[in-house]
Amino acid sequence: MILNRKKPYSHHLVISSMKHFIIVLFTLIGYTLNAQLKQKLADQHYERFEYSKCVMMFDELAEKCLKSKKTCEWENVRKAAYTHYNLFEMKESLRYFEAMEKQNSLTEEDRMAFIKALRYSAKYDQSIALSQKSAQQFPSNAFFKRLNDPKNNFNSLFKDSAYYTINSLTINSGKGDFGPAYFNNTLVYASKSKNTGFLNPTYGWDDGYYLNILQASKESDSTLGEPKLLKHNFISRAHDGPVSFNRDGTEMVITKNTLGKKKGKNVIVLSLYFSKLVNGEWTDLVPFEHNNPAFNVGHAVFADNDQKLYFVSDDPSGLGGSDLYVSSRLGDNWTKPVNLGAAFNTEQDEMFPFVNNDVLYFASKGHYGLGGLDIFEMRLENGKLKNLGAPINSASDDFAYISDSTGLQGYFSTNRGGNIDNIYDFTKKEVLIDVIVQVFEKYKVNEIVPSQPITLKNEVTGEEEEYYSDKDGNLHIQVRENEKYTFSSSKEEFKLKEPVSLMVNKATQDTTYKVELILLPTRITIALRIIAKDTRLPLDQATTVVTSLETKADTTLITNKHGLVTMNVDRNKSYNAFASKKGYIDAERVFSTSNEDGKIIELELALTPIKKGEKFKLENIFYDLNKSTLREESMASLDKLADFILKNDLRIELSAHTDSRGSASYNQKLSQARAQSCVDYLLKKGVKSANIRAKGYGESQLVNKCKDGVTCDEELHQENRRTEVKILEIN
After folding, report:
1. Does some domain include residue 9?
2. Is residue 419 domain-shared with residue 458, that is, in the same domain?
């Protein structure tokens, strides 16, 4: 049936129209007032971090904005994105961030949250594209810069995944469980599964119960008993936990909500408290002296025999977000906290520290990872930062990692698979890396040493073990990944060049490391051959003396039929080799064993047959300056000369010579006096006066050009200052 749209005009129609207008007017006024109230209420919940109470309000406000476009209040879209982001509802959050991106209304902070949400959702390609654009727009932003660092290798975060086995624990409640801690033979953790809030049972952020501390006994290596509330007397109507315990389980440090004040307003902050186990009961809480009502302090763990406390704080003086800090125990107090610095902390959040031996584990949103919070490790001494990779880490939040002393078993927390925190256990297959160790004796061509003892020290555990190389000089062993080892070896008459340290990081099981230990010989063999100068034939039964110029120690040996003697001397020293034989003029030379990389030093001394008129220079004769007094270091050469004269029954002339400096008459007198000093010494050694005469020649027999008026250096003048022996008769 078709209705007739034409109706007669009457007052009834006018009255009806007026009523309709009034109803619409009041409806519009009510709607406006309702919208204003909703906006105000949503903003209040947002400022108090009560995201579960305002998420639907901002959805409605944001949708209205997106539909109207012309009158869109983009701040509501932004808050809708962040509200879902904080509730880990990334699909909804991304929809709002993408709408803001299309409108070009993303701030620098929005871009960081947008990228995190993309990575959290494993949309890595989209996050990379956005991070590259953002890095160009905000070149000083460290977060964008880090994501685009070419040193970061995304695929490497999956290389260790085959080594791990992970499982969700049966104690997980499905309401939120995280922050495991070892306590005697139990596992203690924070949970939202118990309602102990009384009049205020839920938390406005996500409408979950407040955190409480639960304890589950270990019934076997893989199973835990029914969790119960940890017995203590400080359960509160706010968050209690997570907790950590000292080595023997007699002291607890707990994170709790407390009332603080920021910019004149009351705020809820995290604070740390201590409690001790006395007669089976936990004592009343004692606040950490470095709590601060203006910022959060929490997530603490004991370390270094309970003498250090590592914790997290968003102190405004830090690097940004929440940072890792350390404080040392000082009697009953704790030292001023020290920020661990940029090696650990970023401008984003770092939290949930755990220390095992010298390795600090922590969760971070700032360092390069798979998304959300990733778990990292850093050696406190001097190690490099390492992302633990998959499957410990995922695109979701992974945090609160703990492990046993071996590092091969432990627990961690994650909100993967449903955005609810759960505790997983893990078992890691021990990664053993092949190492080949070889020991070499360093010569011109290094020689490998078979059956050589090799000491291996684990610098982490302090354990030492001794091994032996095989008959081919090789030692094949396996070492653990991420532990520091030092290799050394020792052998008589050798010294180790230096121990070799090995730190295996980011290795695969098909990697083989090679360690070379170098033994430097401390001794070297001298092969000293004595020959006749005229015939070049060897002289047997010649007397040789090798003297250390450092210790003055002498070694006397007699040559064999090959004119040869051998002996071992120290390397990097200086020696004098001397040879004598009846019927021959003595000979000597100084040699050094420095810079020798061979096994043998071959030396030769050629002895000149004694003949009438033969002349030779007497080495190492020294006088005081411008005097004829013999110095003590001259005595050794004169002793040898006396022995030479007596053994061969000779008559000689001992002459002294000067350089050309000074007057000729002065030089003549000086040289004569010096020659006489030598003769006088020889007479005391038994040489007959008839067999020796002193003769001074002054500057009359120069051996080079350095006469009067010629400029010469000191070395040339030294050639002229000499003592000589001339054979006059062979008796």
Report:
1. no
2. no
Together in a domain, 599 and 676? no
- Both 204 and 321 in one domain: the answer is yes
Cα 148–Cα 152–Cα 155 angle in degrees, nearest 5: 120
Q: Which residues form the domain of 388?
A: 161-428
Identify the pLDDT of residue 509: 59
**Residue 130 in contact with residue 139, Cβ under 8 Å?**
no
683: part of which helix (H) or strand (E)?
helix 664-684
Cα distances (angstroms) measured from residue 707 to each of 258, 538, 713, 719? 100, 41, 12, 12
- State the DSSP H helix or E strand holding residue 665, giving kind and residue range, or none if neither: helix 664-684
Residues 6+ apart with CB under 8 A from 23: none
Those residues whose C-beta lies under 8 Å from the C-beta of residue 588, and which sit 6 or more positions away, are: 576, 577, 578, 579, 605, 619, 640
Any residues with CB less than 8 A from the CB of 13 and at least 6 apart, and which?
A: 7
Does a structural domain hold residue 268?
yes
Name the one residue in this structure whose structure tokens are 């979701």: 396
Write the CB contacts of 579 (distance below 8 Å, at least 6 apart in sequence).
528, 530, 542, 543, 544, 545, 559, 586, 587, 588, 605, 607
642: DSSP letter: H
With beta carbons less than 8 A apart as the criterion, state whether 615 and 654 touch. Answer: no
10-residue mean pLDDT series, the chain (731 residues): 31 36 39 70 88 90 82 86 90 92 90 90 89 91 87 85 91 90 92 60 53 84 82 65 91 85 71 92 93 93 95 94 95 95 93 93 93 92 85 94 92 90 92 92 93 93 92 93 90 95 72 93 95 95 95 95 96 94 92 88 94 90 86 90 93 95 94 95 95 95 94 92 94 81
Q: Please check whether residues 237 and 322 belong to one and the same domain.
A: yes
Q: Are residues 389 and 464 in the same domain?
A: no
Residue type, 675: A
Q: How far is CA 67 from the centre of its chain?
A: 56
Among residues 100, 131, 151, the one where a domain terminates is: 151
Sign of the dihedral defined by the CA atoms of residues 232, 234, 237, 238, in that order: negative
DSSP 631: P
Residue 656's Cβ-side half-sphere holds a number of Cα atoms within 13 Å equal to 25
Residue 213 belongs to some domain of the structure: yes
Residue 693 lies in a domain: yes
Confidence (pLDDT) at 10 = 33
- Whether residue 444 is found in the same domain as residue 539: no
* Per-residue pLDDT at 15: 33
Note whether 270 and 417 are same-domain residues: yes
- Total count of domains within the chain: 5
**Two tokens at 118?**
């993309």
pLDDT for 260: 62
